[in-house]
Amino acid sequence: MSARIYGPNAVGELIATAPGAIAVLFVRQDRKRSQDLEDLVDAARAAGVKVKELTPEAMKTRAGSRGGTVIAAEVRVAQAPDVSEITADTHPLLVLLDGVTDPHNLGAILRSASAFGAEAVIVPKRNSAPLNDAAVRSSAGAAAHTPLIRVTNLARTVRQLRDNGIWTIATTVGAPTSIWECDLTLPTAVVIGAEGKGVRPGVVKACDLQAGLPLPSPIGSLNASVFAGIALAIAARARKSAEPSS
User: Fold this and answer.
1) Which terminal residue of the chain, N or C, has fewer Cβ atoms less than 10 Å from its own Cβ?
2) Where among 44, 76, 108 does a domain terminate?
3) Is 48 exposed, middle or buried (0-12, 13-18, 19+ CB in 10 A)?
4) pTM of the prediction?
């Protein structure tokens, strides 16, 4: 699988941070040979990225409504396993998103998931952000390393994960338990909802427990990607501390 990002800024960021995530770089044959643009192409080649020059017509076919673009990157996307293949045996850390529709949030969560060692991000097929160029750009290359799994029914998926021995935590405002108090060294799936709406009641009911993040201020909730980053950092710290000392 692959996704595309467009434009010199987005492509330049990816070449600088994660060139290995780029399967191929496309540039228009009739592009204006500006120094900045040619520097990007040279940097991609130096990093071992395949560069392919396209006619304006071929670029427009690939870019659709972005047909005026002169540079684009096809980005590798991590192959998504079937949920049934995820068991407690591999001691996974998973993130499930319920109703997160902003591609920038999705990309940022993929980036945090990759940074803190989560095995996958799981989202419903409906009412979920697409893995479009905005999401891929926000992921800073993480979409190539952390699988995004789309499922038909999130509550059913939670129950399936529980059956497979994975501890499932719904994050909710005002929950009686703090996520700091949860044992995240266990095989764990953390369910995060959209800001405002939160995790749907049916999904909450399917989980083992609810946990929140008490905030010492009048601010009652956090952006989904910010909360995901904090929860994943807590889990990574707990798991690191639980490792046997050498």
Assistant:
1) C
2) 76
3) exposed
4) 0.84
